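Quarterly update from the structural biology core.
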Amino acid sequence: MKKFLFGLAVMASSMVSTTVFAAEGDVHVKGDLKGIKDSLIVISPGETRRYKLDTVLVNNGKFDFTVNVKQPTTIQVYTPGTIRKIEAVGFTLIAVPGESAEVTGDLGSDYYFSGSKFYQEYNEVERAMDKAVQPLRELTKSLDARLAAGVSRDSLSKEYQAKGPALQKQFVDGVMNFIRQHPGYEASATIISQLGDLDKMKEAVALLSPAVREGRMKPVYQEPIDQMEQYNQQEALAAKKQAAGLMAPDFTLTDINGKPFALSSLRGKYVVLDFWGSWCSWCIKGIPEMKNYYEKYKGKFEILGVDCNDTDQKWKDAVKKYELPWLHVYNPRDSKVLEDYGIQGFPTKIIVGPDGKIVKTIVGEDPAFYSFLDETFGK
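Predicted structure, tokenized:
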């Protein structure tokens, strides 16, 4: 099964003195899978770094390895080609101390978990979630294929907006119904993070039996809820800083020629502040359309690219490589510009009016940006 996550997964709820978590221990994983060659890469928590990579030998699809974890933890198992980004083949599982898992099937299509009682339940969870998400997965697959075939992004976005919410609700209902019907499954706690909505996640936690809710699986749902609460707080603060009608904070950064450049020098023009980086895949994917619109409405607005989290040389190389015709400045890591604008993700485009006030903020490679340009300058 291929997992489909709807957004940032998160957990909340404080620890109580009566809570007992699993002690640190080994997790034994063995499998017999089609679709793999001679090795797999296991990504698990590290001691001195955030994670470690171990190579596991595979013989005719069979493998056997053990990982040591301090508490129930997600681990990833990928082919070397996936690590090198030339394919996308692998699986994830919740590694639980003291448990043993078996994985069988075809890594390129459907695979199944068995083993100890926890992983038998875990397999039921995976099957149920796969069924619940299938309609939404088919829609997104269809839209991606049609986009690649040349169908306009705007029309596909409208189609998703018309069909997607109902299918996403169907998925969420599937998750909630499974937990409601299996409150005593420890594996039910592993799917709460996929709900992607803080209220729904807390509602799902309440559905768990007390033994599961306060037992060893608590970290699996708790951390995502905590993260979601923190994310929501940051989003609320960002919304205040990016609100339409606010004066855009002025800044002076170094331009591509090594000279100081002030945002206020563009007063009197519409300006798109494009917060991006050469490392950001969605930023790069959006460049062709940005270049088209920059030419389409040439002279009616200016783009000021604000490079973030690059080295100075990588920034300059990217501007040259992609032949970006607009203005550029480099934002060093000690700058407060990202904080002043409440930037939470990349790319973020903040449109500033001729009066220096924020008109609109668009996060991600969203067709709404181009719709705004057409509505504003296409009259």
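The radius of gyration is 24 Å.
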